[in-house]
Amino acid sequence: MVLLRGASGTMKSSLAYYILYENALHGAPGLYVTVEQPAGNLLDHVASLGLKPTAVSEALPVLDVSRGREHLESSASRLANLSEGRVDSSSVALRILKDKITDLQRPSGFRLLVIDSWDALGLILDFSGDRAQTFSFFDWLRDLQITSLLISEEPAADSNLSNLDEEFLADGIIHLRNVPISETSFQRRIQCLKMRGVNQNTDFRTLLFENGRFEVARAIG
Known about the structure:
Layout: E1 2-6, H1 12-25, E2 30-34, H2 39-48, E3 62-64, H3 69-82, H4 89-108, E4 112-116, H5 118-125, H6 131-143, E5 147-153, H7 165-169, E6 172-180, E7 186-195, E8 205-210, E9 213-218
Parallel strand pairs: 1-5, 1-6, 2-3, 2-4, 4-5
Antiparallel strand pairs: 6-7, 7-8, 8-9
């Protein structure tokens, strides 16, 4: 379970989709769950980068929660009301989402999962400040025996510890940043800050995207 973290404009979604895309091309199916932007917008964007999402549409489906977000929330609220207060709507919404992901895993056997984004999902499921819920969800992801990438905005420097629970619980953290290299130029950088069980290099590397491919190079300057 890996957090892919960065500020706006660091190509978090593009990199996450690219990872699943390349794996799908080589026979490893995946599932991309988009919570914020419609699937059509995501696919149009990656196509503009030179990728061919139609070539992997069966091996890499996109679960669009953004369009059904209101339906998910209203269904969860309705079922919670029927329970007469025994369960809350966020717990019901979480169960609906888990069931949908599990239903999609059975036929495809996907091995990689992206949730875009963790921040938006946390709002729907009301994870704010509830470490037990976050732990339970991460534990469920691990039980799927897949590699999960959770896209997340870089937290503010003054964030309290309750907003950083996912960093403590995640198996890995990858940071993306835009670093100024002159008064007018910026360079994208990538850092593997944490990877449980691996003696990884934590240096920042340059993240390049050219001709439809991401590449990582040693950072200079």
